[in-house]
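FORM 7B: Structural annotation worksheet

SECTION A. Query
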Amino acid sequence: MSSLLAQIDTLGRSVTKNIEYTFRVLMMVYLSLRATILDQTQGLRQIFSVISAQIYFTGWQALPLITVMALGTGGVLIMQSLANLSLVGGTEIIGNFLIVMIVREAGPLLVALVVIARSGTAVASEIGNMRANREIEALESMGINPLSYIVFPRVLGGVISVICLAFYFNLIALVGGFLLTRLIQDMPFVFYAESLIRSFSKHDMAIFLLKNSFSGMIIFVVSCYQGLSVKKSPHEVPQVTTQAVVNSVIFVVIFNLIVSTLFYLNQLRSLGVV
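SECTION B. Predicted structure
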């Protein structure tokens, strides 16, 4: 009995800690947005330069890796779907299957994991080193708000990059994956394209924008928060970087799972199943 109570107490503390952590992250988002609107000490040109640099690093430099992952994911899913659907005579629904697997589910999650591994770690370690080297204190002494100059541009640039990378991933996976498997399957491209067009709907666009925009926000807000949590020692930087990766993965996966669950529950409710 005492062991069960101890487990319940530990679980309660963990939930409380996670709620407090989420509240702090949300407050940092609000304060960074407020500081950007009200505080123009550093000027919009400097903010735009930071946003451009973040988009270049997070978006443009990640294209080779995203291309390889998209080709591999699209090729494997297309080959598997054709092999299995042709057995039951359901090749006409291949478009619906690929839209669900790539656009709704695999694309947002894989892109988010790549961005976490590349850019989330870089942002957390960069801001952590700035904190340890007292560069942020130097900015504050010059009257520059770190939230508007450091946090907001990286979050906005990260969100834009994630959305663009997700769109690129879907395009390469659906088109490049088909061309990659063209040698071992004989499906006409016109039939394949028409199946995709018929299957794509406004709900898929809404899910695409919702998942990728909020995933990008989660990744860079968490990374910035962890970087700013460094006190004075440079030895804390690897620790906060690791924590940024762990928390980003957890929050992104949970968010994607919640969105998918709510969407499919709504679909089942509209069909009268639940």
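SECTION C. Observations
Residues 44-270 form one domain. DSSP finds nine helices and no strands in the chain.

SECTION D. Sign-off
Analyst initials: ____
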